[in-house]
Amino acid sequence: MNSPAMTRVHTSGGTSADQVVYVNSAQAHAGQNVYRGLKTSEGDDMGCIEFVAIVFAFILMIMTFPISIFICFKVVNEFERAVIFRMGRLRRGGARGPGVFFVLPCVDDYCKVDLRTVSFDVPPQEVLSKDSVTVTVDAVVYYRISDPLKAVIQVSNYSHSTRLLAATNLRNVLGTRNLSELLIEREAISHTMQASLDEATDPWGVKVERVEIKDVSLPTALQRAMAAEAEAAREARAKVIAAEGEMKASRALKEASIIISESPSAMQLRYLQTLSSISAEKNSTIIFPLPMELLSPFLNSSHNQPPAQPSQFLPPPLLSPSIHHNCSSSHHNAFKKFNKSIDSTM
What is this structure's pTM? Predict the structure, then answer.
């Protein structure tokens, strides 16, 4: 079957530029208006009451002409659009603005829509990850209105609906990820949520521009377990690095000892270098190593001496009683003379 032909219709609304609308030819012949896929009923036959109300509105506007100007002409800002309803029916031409547009008193009603980007925080959601770990995640969503007509007609409250859908989508997306993916692949998860939300809110005229995951909160017990695991891994790596350093240092010392053993003067130069580095620190005590080669002659001479005779280690002989008596008497006489000399001086 051939698809129904499409007719290009030019409409103009207020001060806005002419807007191109594609309508189904069958609907156009039937007197129905379609704008961006939305059916408008303004072209339908009006009832008697509607016709009388519109005529009465024009008469009232003419009768109160100086004052009606302030009521009939409305202004919307650059970042706003106005969706006009006449007797409850959507008017042709789509949203008006920016600038001045005309409304009939008591007949027309309009709704302003802000086109600026709006951001909101998704409440913290407790999510069970794919590996059965409970985490608390919160995010922020940035969106704007891409089609004011859909935002007014297709949904009752686009802001509240987008917030609820964002919270639900956050739980659904995070439930398919592991804990490691939640902590590492935040950017990929944000892009997935943004694409899913944008597709779901497109019928409402809402464009989701960006989704960012703010924080992933882990249970306290899990945080301690992960911290202990990370600390143990770091300690293991530190021990391996220290062991490798000791092995390299031992190899370097071995090579140095081989080089020094080939030239004895190299050890003396090393001693002098050590002495220079110690003296640069202004130390009061300097320990200078003495080579064992300087003491070898003395050690060899002590080893070459003959062993001592046993008589050398005998105790001195005891004095005879007569000699002991003479010695004691002589000591007594010397003591008397010393006392007499002290008395004479006094």
Answer: 0.57
